[in-house]
Q: What sequence folds into this?
């Protein structure tokens, strides 16, 4: 194939007037219209001088046009780099510089802030607003609705997704066409997606879950999506009766269960609810089944690997497990120190290998070498075990990571900001249980001797540097941090001490 990802996900729909996106307004965008829009954007990007392999950074609200920008990048052989809309200018500046993006696409309201940053880094800037207006679409309007697809190899890069790390610096995970395509094809088969499916899409489209899992599967199977701007409980309840499938993070499901309008009748047409990105409590699973008769299908994935394991479609979906390795994925449990494979049943680090596993971190060979073994196994940093029936259980993390409402937050990044504040000697950031977000961020600060840091001031400065979802929900002052004999902060003790802080 000339461009496997484009041909298989998008090209197969050429000329079809079948529905692709159902919007909240009632409007429907057909496959053909969507591809036309993507082709127009591809013309704009290539006219501005972009060549295959160049990076296109996009911090835009969810809209059909934002999705068409992804399709345009695939068609023109450009590397798509979607960015969380919550990122601050400081965070964005790093991503643009690190990726060497040639173009930055942003919402008009961020244009004034981002223009000088883009200019300084030698990137062009275009706007794309939540309502689909902006300079990108102004230029696109005059372009032809077909574009000669650029030839790409399955091993060529299709996207960079930035993921933070334990050192506080974000890393660009390089995903190839085949990483995305192989995973989409597998999931279509495993979860039995067909052209008759209507997926209720309420996830953001700047992460693996909403962009590659939900969207690519829908494209590969020829189905359609009810494309909501975000997870809004009222909107989801309104549109659920028209849907056959839904994908979400656990917060989606706990919020639905918290509303008595969510009933068995409302979910009558549904055939599949999928959960991932964060642990789904066994209790939520049970409550969901009692309310709707549906057993949520939980699966396990990562930015670097797409999806690795899934509970079975037809067999038993076991609460508290993430199911079996997907076809083509090798999974082993290893000793965190030696890297040796552990006997079945023992707890260790989950490692995975397969066509879904990324090519490494952009321009970070040491970080790549530390996490991706020469034989292709990726060291996930998740702790797990495989039970006697082959189900994978995730029991914890060997990495200092908080997952709040499905967003990954690396404490180190926040600690670096807190440590710089006036009067702060040191800090520790931990995740504690939260009824809505699963986990939330708690910041613990040790003042310099004789100082009393202004907590409001600290919170405000941290707020300017970090995306909203990373902000500590609470800051507490401690005399000292518990340390082990090696001098390492014992976060487990802190997590235990504050575990009920946000209990209902
Ligand atoms: C929003 N806020 C969050 C937050 N989302 N804070 C912490 N964690 C989050 N996830 C902030 C808001 O800015 C707001 O701040 C306040 O918290 C309350 O907002 P809200 O209205 O309750 O939040 P809402 O907009 O409804 O968003 C919650 C959510 C959303 C759960 C719907 O976060 C979401 O869609 N999450 C999905 C993330 C996702 O797609 N993850 C997949 C990653 S891929 P204030 O102060 O302004 O009120 C991956 C791989 C895999 O992990 O396996 O899939
Ligand atoms: P990200 O880097 O944002 O892609 O997040 C990936 C991480 O999310 C994984 O390493 C896991 O820690 C976590 N994760 C994803 N799915 C699940 C799941 N079903 N259960 C528990 N943790 C999960």
A:
């Amino acid at each position: 194939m000339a461009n496997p990802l484009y041909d298989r996900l998008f090209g197969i729909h050429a000329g079809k007037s079948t529905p692709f996106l159902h919007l909240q307004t009632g409007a429907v965008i057909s496959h053909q219209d969507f591809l036309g829009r993507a082709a127009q954007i591809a013309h704009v990007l290539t006219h501005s001088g972009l060549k295959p392999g160049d990076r296109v950074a996009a911090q835009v609200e969810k809209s059909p046009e934002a999705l068409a920008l992804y399709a345009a990048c695939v068609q023109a052989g450009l590397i798509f780099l979607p960015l969380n809309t919550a990122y601050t200018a400081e965070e964005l500046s790093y991503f643009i510089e690190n990726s060497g993006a040639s173009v930055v696409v942003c919402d008009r309201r961020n244009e004034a802030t981002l223009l000088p940053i883009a200019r300084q880094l030698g990137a062009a800037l275009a706007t794309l607003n939540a309502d689909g207006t902006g300079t990108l679409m102004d230029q696109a309007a005059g372009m032809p609705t077909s574009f000669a697809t650029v030839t790409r190899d399955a091993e060529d890069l299709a996207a960079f997704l930035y993921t933070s790390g334990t050192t506080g610096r974000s890393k660009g995970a390089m995903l190839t066409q085949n990483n995305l395509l192989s995973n989409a094809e597998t999931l279509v088969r495993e979860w039995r997606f067909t052209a008759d499916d209507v997926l209720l899409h309420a996830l953001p489209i700047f992460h693996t879950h909403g962009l590659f899992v939900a969207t690519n599967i829908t494209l590969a199977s020829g189905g359609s999506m009810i494309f909501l701007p975000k997870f809004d409980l009222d909107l989801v309840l309104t549109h659920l009766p028209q849907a056959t499938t839904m994908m979400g993070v656990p917060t989606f499901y706990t919020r639905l269960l918290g509303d008595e309008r969510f009933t068995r009748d409302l979910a009558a047409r549904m055939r599949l609810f999928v959960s991932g990105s964060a642990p789904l409590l066994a209790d939520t699973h049970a409550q969901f089944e009692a309310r709707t008769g549906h057993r949520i299908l939980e699966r396990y994935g990562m930015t670097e690997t797409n999806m690795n394991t899934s509970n079975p479609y037809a067999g038993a979906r076991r609460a508290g497990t993430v199911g079996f390795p997907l076809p083509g994925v090798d999974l082993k449990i290893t000793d965190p120190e030696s890297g040796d494979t552990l006997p079945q049943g023992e707890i260790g680090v989950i490692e995975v290998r397969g066509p879904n596993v990324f090519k490494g971190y952009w321009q970070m060979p040491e970080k790549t070498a530390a996490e991706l073994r020469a034989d292709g196994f990726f060291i996930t940093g998740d702790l797990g075990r495989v039970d006697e029936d082959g189900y994978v259980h995730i029991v914890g993390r060997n990495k200092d990571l908080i997952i709040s409402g499905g967003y990954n937050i690396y404490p180190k990044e926040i600690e670096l900001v807190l440590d710089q504040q006036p009067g702060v000697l040191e800090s520790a950031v931990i995740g504690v249980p939260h009824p809505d977000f699963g986990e939330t961020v708690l910041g613990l600060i040790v003042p310099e001797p004789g100082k009393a840091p202004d907590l409001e001031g600290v919170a405000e400065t941290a707020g300017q540097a970090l995306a909203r979802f990373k902000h500590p929900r609470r800051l507490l002052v401690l005399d000292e941090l518990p340390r082990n004999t090696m001098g390492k902060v014992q976060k487990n003790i802190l997590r235990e001490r504050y575990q009920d802080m946000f209990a209902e």
Observations:
- DSSP finds 15 helices and 24 strands in the chain.
- The radius of gyration is 23 Å.
- The mean pLDDT is 96.
- The first strand starts at residue 19 and ends at 23.
